[in-house]
Design goal:
Number of strands: 10
Low-confidence stretches: none
Strand content: 15-25%
Largest sheet: 5 strands, parallel
CATH architecture of the largest domain: 3-Layer(aba) Sandwich
CATH topology of the largest domain: Cobalt-precorrin-4 Transmethylase, domain 1
Number of domains: 2
Shape: globular
CATH class of the largest domain: Alpha Beta
CATH superfamily of the largest domain: Tetrapyrrole methylase, N-terminal domain
Strand order of the largest sheet: 3-2-4-1-5
Helix content: 25-40%
Number of helices: 7
Distance between the termini: 49 Å
Mean pLDDT: 90
Structural class: alpha/beta
Length: 216
């Protein structure tokens, strides 16, 4: 059995008791990436893990990365039960999880997505209308300008630059957007900028999302 564990959007304070128990179960742990605040929890509790960050360095495309991760998890699961940990909630923006659920014997074990902390940090109500998009698979033609828009995986300047150009097809260059980093954790930070400044000298990482408020 593959236990797919959501590591939450921030630090260990966001973890459910079920996730904590799973991580402490003694099963082998594989992480999609170690670039996450939860690594501190694992190391503090002397919980060993294998991370796939080196896989990203071996491939030029994300599809290649994901295929290798999926193949490795499937191969290792033949030796017995294991844990596959991903940032946030396993069912939110996780391609490898979708594949593993359809191709293997796997079960989801909790995890908080980045969305709830984003709502709290930005003080927005999704019932007003909201879209969530992936910066790595972004199509500005699908934007509904009168809805809240949250864009995940804005992890470096190249992604931010491409996103800026796409958004400027819809919004004015002076339109204000918010760069949200590590929402829901002690490192949470919000920075409002003009759209044309989106790829300027700001700290971006894999816990960074962009919020675009609705056009009134």
């Amino acid at each position: 059995m593959i236990y797919i564990v959501g590591l939450g959007a921030g630090d260990e304070k966001q973890l459910t008791l079920g996730v904590v128990d799973q991580l402490k179960s003694g099963l082998p742990i594989y992480l999609r990436t170690k670039e996450h605040l939860m690594i501190q929890f694992l190391e503090k509790n002397n919980i060993s893990y294998v991370a796939f960050d080196n896989v990203y360095e071996r491939h030029d495309t994300f599809s290649g990365v994901y295929e290798e991760i999926i193949a490795t998890i499937k191969d290792q699961s033949e030796n017995g039960d294991l844990i596959y940990g991903v940032p946030g909630h396993p069912c939110v923006a996780e391609y490898t999880v979708k594949r593993l659920l359809t191709e293997c014997e796997a079960v989801i074990v909790g995890g908080q997505s980045f969305l709830d902390p984003m709502f709290a940090e930005l003080a927005i109500d999704p019932i007003e209308g909201m879209q969530v998009m992936d910066a790595l698979d972004f199509n500005y033609k699908n934007i509904v300008k009168k809805q809240h828009l949250i864009i995940s995986q804005v992890f470096d300047q190249i992604v931010a630059s491409n996103l800026k150009l796409d958004l400027m097809e819809i919004y004015q260059a002076e339109y204000e957007v918010c760069i949200v980093r590590a929402a829901g954790s002690e490192l949470a930070a919000l920075r409002w900028v003009k759209l044309f400044e989106l790829d300027h000298q700001f700290e971006l990482n894999n816990l960074t999302s962009v919020y675009v408020p609705p056009v009134k």
